[in-house]
């Protein structure tokens, strides 16, 4: 599913529909290395801009190949007990949230940061920061794992 999300406060989230993120996943390591804040009910994804950003969410049967063009790639577990994912920015109203259905269970989520141009919608050309497409790939897993940075991007990346 291709999305354009309002990444207000330079982030958006992918979470179970029964969960709310609190911000406690933004540890120093999450900010400096992971670029995702992981909480029990979901993942907050740091973006290079506080703006409209392109993303995609895809369900795959097993871990896919890492995109060669990705500048940063990180993986984390994502429990989805409700079977319904919510993709939204922190300032979105419930009517602006996007939904994605999966079988209830534990998933591994890979977030890849792919360089991109501006999204094909109005965007804030006064906002600084690079344009990326945030690719989220999910596959079912049977056991939990730790957060893993598969490819570490540049230390200065968000404008």
Task: Explain what the structure shows.
The chain is mainly beta and 159 residues long. It has one helix and eleven strands. The strands form two sheets. Strands 1-5-10-9-6-11 form a six-stranded mixed β-sheet, with no helix packed on it. The protein has a five-stranded antiparallel β-sheet with strand order 3-4-2-7-8. Strand 3 and strand 4 (42-46) form a beta hairpin. The radius of gyration is 14 Å and the shape is globular.
Question: Which features would summarize this protein structure in a list?
Answer:
single chain; 159 residues; mainly beta; six-stranded mixed sheet
Q: How is the topology of this model organized?
A:
Elements: E1 2-6, E2 11-16, H1 28-34, E3 36-39, E4 42-46, E5 52-59, E6 72-80, E7 84-88, E8 98-101, E9 105-115, E10 132-140, E11 148-151
Parallel strand pairs: 5-10
Antiparallel strand pairs: 1-5, 2-4, 2-7, 3-4, 6-9, 6-11, 7-8, 9-10
Output the strand order for the largest sheet: 1-5-10-9-6-11
Query: Rg, please?
Result: 14 Å
Structural class based on helices, strands and sheet pairing: mainly beta
Sheet with the most strands, sense and barrel status? 6 strands, mixed
Brief write-up:
It is built from one helix and eleven strands, in the order ββαβββββββββ. It is mostly beta strands.
């Amino acid at each position: 599913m291709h999305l354009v999300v309002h990444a207000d406060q330079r982030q958006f989230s992918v979470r179970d529909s029964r969960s709310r993120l609190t911000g406690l996943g933004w540890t120093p390591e999450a900010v400096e290395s992971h670029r995702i804040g992981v909480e029990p009910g979901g993942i907050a994804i740091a973006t290079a801009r506080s703006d409209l950003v392109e993303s995609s969410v895809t369900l795959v049967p097993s871990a896919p190949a890492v995109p060669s063009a990705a500048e940063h790639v990180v993986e984390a577990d994502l429990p989805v007990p409700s079977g319904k994912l919510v993709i939204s920015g922190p300032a979105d109203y419930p009517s602006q949230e996007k939904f994605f259905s999966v079988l209830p269970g534990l998933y591994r989520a890979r977030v890849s940061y792919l360089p991109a141009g501006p999204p094909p919608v109005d965007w804030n050309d006064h906002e600084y920061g690079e344009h990326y497409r945030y690719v989220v790939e999910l596959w079912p897993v049977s056991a939990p794992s730790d957060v893993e940075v598969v490819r570490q991007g540049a230390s200065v990346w968000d404008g």
